[in-house]
Design a protein that fits this description.
Elements (H helix, E strand, L loop, with lengths): L1 H11 L10 E5 L4 H12 L3 E6 L11 E5 L15 E4 L6 H10 L4 E5 L3 H4 L6 H24 L2 E7 L2 E2 L7 H11 L2 E3 L6 E2 L2 E2 H11 L8 E5 L5 E2 H11 L6 E3 L3 H11 L7 H5 L10 H7 L14
Parallel strand pairs: 1-2, 1-4, 2-3, 4-5, 5-6, 6-11, 7-10, 8-13
Antiparallel strand pairs: 9-12
Length: about 300
């Protein structure tokens, strides 16, 4: 599947030599953002080292090298020097490997965190709180290492990410629509959302590469639309060629909490319903000013669901 995704992205991206002679180290290479970073960097002439954990990418390219490594056990791999590290794996694993990556000579890093540090920090769900703690702790440790060792660091925190069929938000909702023809909501489902395409996040990471104005800063990144949750779901129905059917369920939070107790591995809980009426959006202004960030509208362009 990931080979097909890479081939699809490469076909859609104009080739250039803007990064010819440059090298990019990409962690989390098999994830939705990592795949886009790989494809964009290759299309623009860079030498790319893709760090994969368990399963190598079934994809070859003359300028692509794959490095199998567990980032939490960096002694298991010899990281090469790169002009930039673009970290798209969970941020909390990076502090383990970052000293070895910097020791190899990499002095620039663009690192992905998540806006969940804000959107879920009031969550009553223990698993969500644990994720928030890991995100916050990961960011703090990475920032401290960067400051101590002179790494030019930029942190990007995306909101709800979609576009490659690998996410657990929009793609899961699309599967619900295809299977059940309706989506349950917690009325009025008026909280604003700003879904961002994984390809736009990859563009952001590469655009920030050589911008000194981004060094030592963090940016919250959303998509090109701020739309109410209800309207987001309706637009997804239309995109899938289905008549929108949103079913208000007054006890939806309690029902999802019950599902979570029975099937915790599904990562579904009542906080998901409660957040339907909370705004979870970004101010893209600083990113637009510092590195020209211009994300697409929700579901515009090539989307895999």
């Amino acid at each position: 599947m990931r080979r097909q995704l890479l081939e699809t992205i490469l076909k859609s991206v104009p080739e250039s030599s803007v990064y010819s002679g440059k090298s990019v180290l990409v962690t989390g290479a098999s994830g939705q953002i990592g795949l886009n970073v790989l494809a964009l960097a290759l299309a623009r002439g860079a030498q790319v080292v893709a760090v994969v954990h368990a399963t190598p990418l079934e994809f070859t390219h003359p300028r692509l090298t794959q490095l199998q490594a567990d980032l939490t056990a960096p002694a298991s791999a010899a990281f090469p020097r790169a002009d930039i590290l673009i970290h798209t794996a969970p941020i909390w694993v990076l502090p383990h490997a970052l000293p070895a990556i910097m020791a190899a000579g990499t002095g620039r890093a663009v690192v992905f965190g998540s806006q969940s540090v804000f959107g879920k920090r009031e969550s009553a769900n223990a698993a969500e709180q644990a994720v928030v703690d890991s995100l916050v702790g990961g960011e703090e440790k990475v920032a401290r290492l960067a400051a101590e060792r002179g790494l030019d660091l930029t942190v990007l925190r995306p909101t709800m990410t979609y576009g490659m069929g690998l996410d657990v938000n929009i793609t899961r909702m699309a599967r619900t629509i295809r299977r059940f023809y309706f989506v349950p909501i917690c009325n009025p489902a008026s909280g604003l959302r700003q879904p961002v395409h994984a390809g736009d996040l990859a563009e952001a990471a590469l655009a920030a590469w050589d911008k000194p104005a981004t060094f030592g800063k963090s940016y919250n990144l959303g998509g090109g639309d701020q739309i109410p949750y209800r309207a987001m779901v309706q637009r997804l129905f239309v995109h899938l060629g289905r008549t929108p059917r949103l079913v208000p369920l007054p006890l939806l939070p309690q029902a999802l909490d019950a599902v979570n107790r029975l099937f915790p591995a599904l990562h579904i809980n009542g906080e998901i319903a409660r957040r339907m009426n909370r705004d979870l959006v970004s101010d893209n202004g600083p990113a637009a000013r510092d590195f020209g960030y211009q994300p697409r509208a929700f579901l515009a362009g090539d989307v895999i669901l």
